[in-house]
Amino acid sequence: MKRLIAIAAAVLALAGCGGEAIVPEGSQGAHGHGANSAAPPVPTASARFNDADVMFVQMMVDHLQLGISLSQLAMDKATKPQAKDLAGAINTTQREELSTLKSWLKLWGKPEGGGADLHAAHGGQPLLDNKVIDDTKEKSGAEFDLSFLNLMAGHQGAGVEMALAEKKDGMNPEAVAYAERVMNSRQGQIQQMLGLISEQ
Questions:
Q1: pLDDT tens-digit profile of 113-148?
Q2: Cα dihedral across residues 83, 84, 90, 91: positive or negative
Q3: HSE-up of residue 8 (Cα within 13 Å, Cβ side)
Q4: Which residues are registered as beta bridge partners of 108?
Q5: What is the pLDDT of residue 33?
Q6: What is the DSSP letter of 50?
Q7: Which of 123, 112, 106, 2 is nearest to 63 (CA)?
């Protein structure tokens, strides 16, 4: 778990500490501040793209699916209200993003699969996988909350790392703009989660 916190903190330092967390309307952020109720919709992608765009979108499809699975689990099991609210916001946002990214791959004539293999080819396996999620199901109470916050903070940090690579190497304007959105929203979420972890 300490490794996940370190990864999330390092990503924040690398990318800059700005960012807006996305939480449900009317709820409060980890420090009592209001936040945006919803992110703007991700636009339809143009047909101009390169290999970096395809790799980013394929990896994000796999990444989003794992994040949705973990957030759904936290919506059911989290005991800390702020953690439950954050899980709900992540679930909603990432479902919308997943649908859009799948439509981009269809437009480009590229398969959805291969995200996990791409992770392996570019630095290792993702921090989160189905086995880790299954193991987390066995936890409850404060132990579950802490596990969820640590895992999701590290997972969202990995999303920021992928977005940084897309901003550097991608050419599709919508994919690059989405990468910027990922950086901003995930950095805000990581800050919230690190704050909640410090309160445990």
A1: 765 555 554 444 567 888 999 999 999 999 999 999
A2: positive
A3: 25
A4: none
A5: 36
A6: -
A7: 112
Annotate 146-184 with DSSP letters as a single string.
HHHHHHHHHHHHHHHHHHHHHHHH---HHHHHHHHHHHH
Q: What CA–CA distance (Å, rounded) separates 70 from 134?
A: 9
pLDDT value at residue 32 = 36
Classify 145 as helix, strand or coil.
Answer: helix
In single-letter form, the type of residue at position 88 comes to G
Six token digits for residue 10: 């390092």
Beta-bridge mates of residue 34: 28
**2-6+46-199 CATH pick, 1.10.10.10, 1.20.1260.10, 1.10.10.60, 1.20.1050.10:** 1.20.1260.10
Quote the Cα angle for 50-54-59, to 5°.
150
65-76 pLDDT, tens digit per residue, is 999 999 999 999
Q: Which residues of the chain register pLDDT less than 70?
A: 1-44, 114-126
Q: Which two tokens stand for residue 66?
A: 């794992």
CA distance 82 to 125: 29
Give me 51's structure tokens: 């290999």
CA distances from 46 to 94, 154, 175 (A): 21, 31, 9
